[in-house]
Amino acid sequence: MSSIPSAEGFDSTLTLLRNPYGFISQTCRALDTDLFETRILLQKTICMTGSAAAEVFYSDDKLIRAGSMPGRIQKTLLGEGGIQGLDGAAHQHRKKMFMSLMGTEHIAALQGMSLHMLDNYAPDWEARNEVVFYDKVREMLTRAVCAWCGVPLPEAEVATRTAQLTALFEDAGAIGPKHWAARLARHRLEKWAAGMIQQVRDGELQPTQESALHVIATWRDLDGAILPPKVAAVELLNVLRPTVAVSVFIVQTAHALYRYPEWQEKLRNDEGLLEPFVQEVRRLYPFFPAVAARVKSTFEWQGYRFPKGHRVLLDLYGTNTDRRSWDAPLEFRPERFRGRAENPYDFIPQGGGNHYTNHRCPGEWIAISQMKAFCRYLVNDIDYDVPDQDLELDPGELPSLPQNRFIMRNVRRRQ
Ligand code: HEM
């Protein structure tokens, strides 16, 4: 058996932080391999890229999630006790809870709520000289997802909850004061969410049966017990937080419309191109760089030994832009998605494999539906100018957004 090639240096944490989207694929290319070994946060870690690597990563008999997440990510982005750290039957059972929220009509209802927000916000945008699109979209999505989940959100709390939910995904990887602010935001959000879970259980709050708040408050785990309030709070935030994070994809969609203006006309003329367009944004724009797991028990793959307990990182961004799966992978070509058969291992912006049995994101349909709604609105319902600004996406920033969050001017509603 060969030994896994090694990256240069003793520990790659800083190199990874400096180049989160390119580190794994570039190192693999330099070593002419699909995988290499290094240390991340001083722990031995195997990094892998490409669809073959994704296939082994998502075979659930080989890798597990318990204990795979760095503590600082759990204390900010994910919380403790949630689905991300479960394995086997416990995971599959909890996953049903999330998947039960993803019916087509239910997701369409959330889209309808966002469209309603757009109608409400547009007059104010017209009246203003300038709109910071990312800030507005985050706020709209906070309002829409809270209403959709059955979560009461008084007007006076909108800005605070939007900022707290944003801190969880924007500052998860931060070091220093931002990290501590994200931890505080999680603490406050969990207290808020646990309070609502308790109110539902006490009958003081009665959200609709199909709402996330009701489903999570009444969900029973495999042992027949309802979820502890803190865990239920983490799971409710597992719906609220990432739905607000779809704002990143929506700003990236606006960015693509600006950078590839010929697509505005194409999308106006052919509704069938909308989905390929947003899929290409999800493929090419950097958002979630990699996912982590641990080796369950020692196994061999492609002649290499994966020792029990080693952490494994799967490169999402590099797999989405792997030239073995994609022609001209760094070019923006939405047509590539027309009629393309789905492959759960080569297009993995929100994880891969099977939605029910693996850890693949249950919110993919929400992301696509929201992106399409906003994209259609930008193309058909308003005109706007994009003034001179720095629109470069900083590849060292997580998630990767333009410096001033996409400024629009002179917004006019079309008749
Ligand atoms: C903003 C766009 C989104 C991105 C980039 C994203 C990305 C991801 C990724 C990379 C994973 C991990 C996959 C893995 O571990 O293999 C994940 C899991 C998850 N996502 Fe999303 N997601 C997004 C939106 C959503 C939405 C809208 C929801 C709302 C329900 C959601 C809920 C979850 C949950 C609950 C998990 C854990 C699934 C499990 O462990 O089985 N995500 N997401």
From TrEMBL:
Stored InterPro entries: Cyt_P450, Cyt_P450_E_grp-I, Cyt_P450_sf
Report the EC number(s), separated by commas if there are several: 1.11.2.4
- A single GO BP: sterol metabolic process
Task: Please give the start and end residues of each transmembrane region.
Answer: none
* Keywords, in A-Z order: Heme, Iron, Metal-binding, Monooxygenase, Oxidoreductase, Peroxidase
Binding positions for heme per the UniProt entry: 361
Instruction: Enumerate the GO terms in the molecular function aspect.
Output: heme binding; iron ion binding; monooxygenase activity; oxidoreductase activity, acting on paired donors, with incorporation or reduction of molecular oxygen; peroxidase activity
Q: Which cofactor does it need?
A: heme
So what family is this one in?
Belongs to the cytochrome P450 family.
**Descriptive protein name:** Fatty-acid peroxygenase
Provide the organism lineage as a comma list: Bacteria, Pseudomonadati, Pseudomonadota, Alphaproteobacteria, Rhodobacterales
Q: Which gene encodes it?
A: cypC
